[in-house]
Amino acid sequence: MTLEFDLSALPATEAYKLLSGAILPRPIAVITTVSPEGVANAAPFSFFGILSHDPAILAVGIEPRADGTRKDTARNILETGVFTVHIPDVAMAGVVQAFASPEAPEVDEIALHGLGTVPGTHVDCPRLIDAPVALECRFEQRLDLGAKAGAGRDILIGTVKAVFLREDAVNGRHHVDPERIDALGRLGGATFTTTRDRFSL
User: Fold this and answer.
1) With pLDDT > 70 as the criterion, what percentage of the chain qualifies?
2) Which domains does the chain have, with CATH numbers?
3) Which of 11, 115, 151, 168 has its CA 20 to 30 A from that of 196?
4) What is the pTM of this model?
């Protein structure tokens, strides 16, 4: 037996519970940006995924604040055209959760939480040196959701210009070692998971 939920008949908050609780596990993107005023920003998003490798395209869905205004990450991407996506490891779980706390636009969240960075090489925003994976991206387009635009998430699509991997996590044939990445994943609510329990078919 299964239960059917007609999303057109449910409030958005209830649809969110069903979708975020059922599509598991989700990778976490910690996205760094810089505002037009030069303030660095970092925030986690789990409505995120890679869509294509040729060209290398990813998308992220960024929900607005409760008052309907854009979050700093979305505003910065739309105004500067660049961003960097990081895949955090389990050791970064605490700071990932800390990044989720709202801060004023003039607060440098990376400095606030004491993370080390290096300048981007293909984009003008910082790269977190503790993250095992980083993808420097250029913004391509915002998906227009028609009547939902402004009320729902900003669906932002970017081209990956460069991939940065922890040195011991990739071999000469470009195979990535998931054990070395030790990626943090998102389940429903405030629950996270790891990729440590694996099997092969």
Assistant:
1) 97
2) 26-164+177-189 (2.30.110.10)
3) 115
4) 0.93
